[in-house]
């Protein structure tokens, strides 16, 4: 099996659609097995209901909803506006705005606490938590729309990571969580410019060396050393962690990408790593969708996704924004 759309061929609109639908699909495929140990469940091969959350097939969780909320905010404000994004996250958590079904679910402690602070009046730009224990993947999973906007605007690497850090800090303000978002956006920029996963990882590493040479980033380096140096192409599956820790989620995603499989296989491989299956699936889905474009999302997945018609309409508005953004 070869990718249906090779690197460098998909339009930005198609890549944006791929990133959003890919995140939703990876999330929804992983929801039934979220929290399950590796190889302790029948491998996921299709959208299915039940399991960890007892949801119908095609139900995306916090990861998918926060992507949609972010896209909507970027479209409405024609850029990143922390207060608007914070308000929409409040509406998601408390009023099910862009929730797949009748409830918002799947969010971690840090995400919830930050949004509760915003709800209580803390400015969104200052709401993020910043303890060592606040380095879950809750901001990483929703960062990819920001990378798309940065790409459309031809932002410099510095501007790209600054945007990523600001978007992260609404919920996750620790330097490590921000760093993971910055690295993810640099990686995404490489993929969006038509580079292969291997070339994009190399580009991310070389740019990061300049961008993160000073504190507070320097002192975080040892935590992301594998992301910066490890040859993931020779790492075995049993050596890959797929927890909800931002560093391990990004490592798992890089490992999946470097296997250079087509989107469908890559997303299933990510989900079947288990643990934080839905979030790893969402990250790999977003990045694979950027490579191959929305047409690579299997129709059997797409048609099962909750609220797909509304999602497609939002994605079309996002594409218009990106098209006019340069
Ligand atoms: Mg989730």
The major beta sheet can be summarized as:
none
- Mean of the pLDDT scores? 96
Beta-strand residue fraction? under 5%
| Helical content band | 40-55%
Shape descriptor: globular
Structural class: mainly alpha
Number of strands: 0
Q: What is the CATH-assigned architecture?
A: Orthogonal Bundle
The CATH class assignment is Mainly Alpha
SSE pattern, N- to C-terminal: HHHHHHHHHHHHHH
pLDDT under 50 segments (min length 5)?
Answer: none
Radius of gyration: 17 Å
How many separate domains make up the residues?
Answer: 1
**The CATH fourth-level homologous superfamily:** ADP-ribosylation/Crystallin J1
| Number of helices, counting only DSSP H or I runs of 4 residues or more | 14
* CATH third-tier fold name: ADP-ribosylglycohydrolase fold
Distance between termini?
Answer: 35 Å
Q: Briefly, what is this?
A:
With 326 residues, the chain is mainly α. It is built from 14 helices and no strands. It is globular, with a radius of gyration of 17 Å.
Written overview of the protein:
With 326 residues, the chain is mainly α. The protein has one domain (12-39, 60-323): Orthogonal Bundle (ADP-ribosylglycohydrolase fold), CATH 1.10.4080. It is 55% helix and 0% strand. Helix 1 (12-30) runs parallel beside helix 11 (263-271) and helix 3 (82-95) packs across helix 4. The longest helix is centred in the N-terminal third of the chain and has 19 residues, at 12-30. The protein starts with 11 loop residues before the first helix and ends with a helix. The mean pLDDT is 96. Bound molecules: magnesium ion.
